[in-house]
Structure formats: structure tokens, C-alpha cells
Known about the structure:
The structure is a single chain. The protein is an alpha+beta fold. The chain has helices spanning 46-61, 92-99, 105-124, 175-178, 187-202, 212-223, 243-246, 254-257, 263-272, 283-287, 290-293; strands at 4-12, 16-23, 29-35, 71-77, 80-86, 127-128, 137-139, 145-147, 154-155, 322-323. It has two domains: 4-87, 2-Layer Sandwich (Phosphorylase Kinase, domain 1), CATH 3.30.200.20; 92-305, Transferase(Phosphotransferase), domain 1 (Orthogonal Bundle). Helix 3 (105-124) runs antiparallel to helix 5 (187-202) and helix 5 packs across helix 9. The longest helix is centred in the middle third of the chain and has 20 residues, at 105-124. It is globular and about 60 Å long. Residues 300-324 have low confidence and may be disordered.
Amino acid sequence: MEHYERLDKIGEGASGVVYKARDRRTGATVAVKRLRGAGFGDHDGSRLSEDLLREAACLEACRGHPSVVELRAAHRDGEAAFLVMEYVGPSVAQVMRERGRPFPEADARRLMRQLLDGARAMHDLGVLHRDLKPDNVLVDAHGDLKICDFGMSRFAAATAPPYTSPVVTLWYRAPELLLGSTEYDDRVDTWALGCIMAELLAGAPLLPGRSEMDQLNRAFDTVGTDDMTDWPGFCRLPRAGSPLCQRSRPPSRLREMFPSLSAAGLDVLSGLLACRPDRRLTAADALRRPWFTDAESADVDQPRSACGGRFTARVGGVADAIVV
């Protein structure tokens, strides 16, 4: 990593620490993520190498999409592993803290279009992000968004379920994950995007739970159970017997909580936050809803076709970016 001069610490998460750095060869500002070691039992560093390759492969597959941060290189240096990415700017979480007020609906729609288009591209490639939240969405100098931190991501197509559980930060974790599901799909990401949409519109987190069961209770109290117990996959959930699932709940309170949101906007928000996974909107479905399709042309600022051809197949050149 002698080519990079470390500047400031940007952030820290479960999978690593991110620094702002300068590429000594070009003078360009980049973001460098140092992955955390796997700890006890990873004596030969194989787990760290696996984590590096998995995160790099998911990022490389999404290369070229304007709403996903770009991977520049990946390095394994002795006992350390690094990802070098484009430097974008602050996170949505930082911007919202500094802003101190909700986004108008038109702005929220523009931002959600970008996030959903990025998620649609990932999911078309079989990539599950599994940790979408405001801290993992960056804002560039033009006010556009880029999804980052693929430390929890994986290719769903690589192996069939079961998958790792729990995943996703608690406040953005879908009900089926809270109930212990290991057979989830890309709709765990769209639930998280629904939580982000609500946060943009409200200026505060929608479901700030203190524990998994408190989180589930808040979700059920906010959006209703949506006949969750009738979902065919419900009986396979490890926590299906929880009393929280049997309690009578009122219908969704989203209209009450967002009284000024248009009917089309509520349609998207409710669809993303459907408790039953089989009734939840996918990213592609959400983008086809009138809230987006009927928007004025001036609001449609995401050129989806500009790089669509780059997402027809998984990119296989990640090895070219790896420096051992």
C-alpha cells in the first residue's frame, strides 16, 4: 500500500475501517478500506482472503453503475487486506444529521430512484447487499447517491440457502430476518430501502429498536402483520412461535405517520415495507410504480440505459484488480 498516503479516518464498521487517502502516483483522492481480520482460528489468513475476494467480486460486478461506489483495486499485504475505491463524500446519515429536517417528497423520490436503480442492478446480478442503511449510502458533490460498504454482500446465485443470519443493521432488518430466516432473498434489501425512504421523509429513523424482539414489535405495530402467519414460509422460521406473531395488530399506520405523502408515494413506501416477503416490492417492481413513472421529466435524472449493457452478465475480471 506504499502507493497511498493515508489522510483522515472516514468511518468504521463491522467489516473494516475506511480512510481517505491520496494516490501518490496520480494525486487522486480515494477511499481505502482495511478489512478486519477474522480473528481466532484464521491462522493462515484464508478467511481474510475469502472476505476480500467476496467483497471485491461483488463491487467489481457492479462496476459502472452510477449508484454504486467504484472499486479501483484490492490488495492483500501480509496479514492485512485492503480495498481501494473512489472517494465520494459524506454519508446520507451525516447529511441528514447536519440537515436536521426531512427531505421534501420530490427530493426523496429522486434519491430513492437512484437507490432502487442501484439495488435493481445488484439484484439482477444476484448480489445481495445485506446491510443497506444511511451510513452505507454516500452523497457526491452533485447531490447524487452511491451505495457503498459491500462487507456483508454475497452472490445469492453462488449457493442455495441457507444463508448467514442475522444480517443487516438492526433498525433496517426485515421481519423474516428478525424471525431467524436463513432462506431470504433480495427483498431483505428492499425492506431496508423502505426504512431509508421513511427516514428521508421523516428526518428520523422509522424503527429504532433496542433489541431484535423490540424491533419486530415496532415493525408489526407500524405496518401491521400483513397476514404474516399465512405466508407459506412462516412455518419454517425458527421464531415462528413468538407471541409477537400471534398478537392482534392494527393495520398499517404509515398513512397516519406520513399524512402529506402522496398516494403514489405511499404506495411505494407501503410496498417496500410489506411484512410478508412474498408481498414486498422488489427494486424493479418499485421503479415501475406511478410514483416514479408518472414523475415529471425534470425529476427523472437517472439515465438507466447509460450503462445497462454492462449489467447483462457478472463481470469476471475481478482477479485483474487484485494485487497480492
